[in-house]
Amino acid sequence: MSTPEAISSKDFDLTHRDIAYFSMEIALSPQLPTYSGGLGMLAGDTLRSAADTSSPVVAISLVYHRGYFRQQLSDVGQQTETDVPWAPDRLPAGPSVSIHIQDRQIQLRSWRYDVIGTTGHIVPVFLLDSDVEGNDPWDRKLTDQLYGGDSYYRLCQEAILGLSGIALLQALGVKPEVYHMNEGHASLLTIGLLEERLQGRPLSEATDDDRAAVREKCVFTTHTPVPAGHDQFGLDQMNQVLGSDRSVAIEAAGGIHNGLLNMTYLALGLSRYVNGVAMQHGKVSQYMFPEYKVHAITNGIHAATWMAPSFQELFDAEIPEWRTDNFYFRSVYGIDPARISACHVKNKHRLFAWLARRTGHYFNPSVLTLGFARRVATYKRAGLLLHDPERLCALAEKIGGLQILYAGKAHPADNAGKALIRDVYAAAVKLNSESLKIYYIENYDWELGAMLTQGVDVWVNTPRRPYEASGTSGMKAAVNGVPSLSVLDGWWIEGCAENTTGWAIENGESEEIEANSLYHKLENSIAPLWANPNAWARIQQHCIGINGAFFNTQRMLGQYFENAYYPAGPSKFSLLPSEEESLSESALSQGNK
Ligand SMILES: *Cc1c(COP(=O)(O)O)cnc(C)c1O
User: Fold this and answer.
1) Smaller CB count within 10 Å for the chain: N or C?
2) Which H or E element spans position 559?
3) What is the pLDDT of residues 539-555, one digit of tens each?
4) pLDDT over threshold 90, residue 7
């Protein structure tokens, strides 16, 4: 059983928490199984940057007693799952609240996890917990499993996140100016806000003014570029779980779409600012929701979380300012590229030593090594790299050897995803040779994600366009001087400078064409460059200087403050000097003249 490591007993001020951030999953620490993949990582990295920049943020999520699962793979790659129970009661307790859903009361308690920034600022995260004595036995299990159960279970969880999240903030005496929904799972907070505003009057009495007042406080980030990916529930379920009064309010807000409760439409209807998570995703979302204005703020990663110790030491020595201001990564051009390569060599050795310990498999540090690790979803096309086995084998031999490291969990109910893992296993059995080594690593999680993005030579990503809203693992690679070879989708449209920060797999009408492009670049662009250490060191430098400096959550959060949270006029959180400051500065300098 894992226990939370960072327990703070520090008292802190909750009176000025202007931003409330709601997310179904948040990756808080490598020890806590409260996340499934990219959405939770993004939430965690966002809060870590909020803490670093002393931003007045408070966050809400659920506790998940059983944890998101540990993956076991049999010798043919068959996935099985086991729970990862943990001990939230080691955390300080937050307030308890009560909500009325499914025609009965549910008591929720809460646990507080403190995200602590570089200068000690705390962003408290409250994890809601329905396992309270006196609750209906079924209700006590509602905060057990992340993305578990059926749609009824899921709707109850979303009701807890949104409705008791608002109740919890009231109980804390926090009065946020902005409520940020990280994906549609959190949409019911809008109904919680409407209830708060009506103070016990029925929601059916809510007027356009009431809805406008809620809208004025809400910001919504959508993460899914396909309609099927958006949370939807039957109207009978909506009535059963939420009751008729709230159902009327949801309908009035535009939350019913094609005869279903649609969480994305509910959020769209009651948010004043809506955004996608990369420029392309903003466009795709705008096309999907033409009735609403959709902006874009490109995702990032929390640099200090993902950068290898070797690089952290180098930067602490050369550009220590990076810890509080990631723009300083641009100054990597003042560092000898050979020192950057040396850090990468260390990271590669570190990864291989770790793999040897954990799996008993040995990899050769002097062989070009590709990494492919992500949630196993069919659109991510783990198999594209293996599309033409003969060509891959010939290529590996020609370039002096190739190692490919795979990792990723399939959702327990995703049989197609599980089959993909078995396919990679089968390919490895068939193709592994002197010059080609394919290996699937069990149990992709935070730690493995970090080791891989730090230690491989090239990060590969092959989503089917336009399904990758953003993608963030390639950003983790970039800040570690690891270039990407990727389909031009999500963040890579913005991050790819060909032969500089990595390579684009050309868009094709078929998998055949895309696989061809992948092999062609590997053979003719990547391998020759990699064989030239000086040229490769330059590439590594560009990854950090160009992409590390931009694709981080510090820049991203700054953009949220500027564009989403406080768009009107100079805000108190402006990255640029406010008008008054610059005036007084110019007055000062004039006075000096
Ligand atoms: C970064 C990360 C992800 C998200 O990666 P994508 O490139 O967006 O797929 C998922 N899972 C883990 C464990 C991660 O570290």
Assistant:
1) C
2) helix 553-559
3) 999 999 999 999 999 99
4) no
Domains 19-296 and 303-552 share a fold: yes
Q: Which atom of ligand 1 is nearest to the CA of 444?
A: 13
Which residue's CA lies nearest to atom 13 of ligand 1?
445
**Burial class of residue 54, CB neighbours in 10 A (0-12, 13-18, 19+):** middle
Spacing, Cα 553 to ligand 1 middle (Å):
14
375 lines ligand 1 (CB under 6 A): yes
Q: Is the pLDDT of residue 517 over 80?
A: yes
- Output the CA 267–ligand 1 centroid distance in Å: 25
Q: Does ligand 1 have an atom closer than 6 angstroms to the CB of 445?
A: yes
Nearest CA to ligand 1 atom 4: 38
Ligand 1 centre to CA of 233 (Å) is 27
Q: Which pLDDT score, from 0 to 100, does residue 583 have? A: 40
User: Is this model's pTM higher than 0.90 or not?
Assistant: yes
Atom of ligand 1 nearest to the CA of 306: 15
Structure tokens at 181: 């929904």
Q: Which CATH number does the domain 303-552 belong to among 1.20.1290.10, 2.60.120.10, 3.40.50.2000, 3.90.1150.30? A: 3.40.50.2000
Task: Confirm or reject: Cβ of 4 under 6 Å from ligand 1.
Answer: no
Q: Is the CB of 38 under 6 A from ligand 1?
A: yes
Nearest-atom index, ligand 1, CA of 474: 7
Domain boundaries, the chain: 19-296, 303-552
Q: Which fold has domain 19-296?
A: Rossmann fold (3.40.50)
Q: How far is the CA of 336 from the centre of ligand 1 (A)?
A: 30
Rounded CA gap, 121 and 53, in Å?
A: 8
- Label residues 355-394 b or e (16+ Cβ within 10 Å = b): beeeeeeebeeebbbbbbbbbbbeebbbebbbbbeeebbe
Whether 501 lines ligand 1, by a CB cut-off of 6 Å, is no
Tokens of 371: 């990494």
Q: Is 139 a pocket residue for ligand 1 (Cβ < 6 Å)?
A: no
Report whether residue 444 contacts ligand 1, using a CB cutoff of 6 Å. Answer: yes
pLDDT digits (tens, 9 = 90+) for 549-573: 999 999 999 999 999 999 985 455 5
Is the pLDDT confidence value at 575 over 70?
A: no
Residue 569 CB: number of other CB atoms within 10 A? 8
Residues whose CB is less than 8 angstroms from the CB of residue 284 and which lie 6 or more positions away in sequence, other chains included: 225, 276, 466
Least confident among 48-52, 112-116, 298-302, 382-386: 382-386
Within 10 Å of residue 104's Cβ, how many Cβ atoms?
10
Question: According to the model, what pLDDT value does residue 229 have?
Answer: 81
Q: Residues 188, 191, 193, 196: is their CA dihedral positive or negative? A: negative
